[in-house]
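Record type: monomer structure entry
Structure origin: computed from sequence
Chain ID: A
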Amino acid sequence: MKTRLNAFCLSLLLVASVGFADAPIQVKKTISFSAESNAPQKVQDECNLQTQVPSYLSAYAKKVVTLVDGDFAAAGKQLKLEITSAFAPGGGAWSGAKNVEVTGELIENGNVIGSFIGSRYSTGGMFGGLKGTCSITARCAKAIAKDISIWLKNPTLDARLGDSK
């Protein structure tokens, strides 16, 4: 009986410690374009990349990422994201490939424990000629988010994700 009770208590302790170790990573619901992004103003205003990247990331990493409004909570891990480039001339696929680049820093207790540059380009895929610029940049945002979700499983410093390898 005592052995069973000890085993039960040990299993509860393990479950509790795993729960703390796997606390969700905070990501802001809306990220910003860097001042040096050179993203066309129309893309910044109309394509919603600022919310698409975090939203797609949350979908790909449901159990790992929590989207937050405003400031990060002091405790836990935070992933700071920024759109550092968006080459997206108007004209949809007819004006050529579109490219989006995002940088990120994974922070825990004030220390950077992981960082990356992620970049993706697209010509729109099948029927790309029928897609607009925002639709094509959304494909880039979705691919970058998937890359980030994979990186979060084993974050490293100075990683190169997607087409930035």
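Annotation 1: The mean pLDDT is 82.
Annotation 2: The chain has one domain: 23-162.
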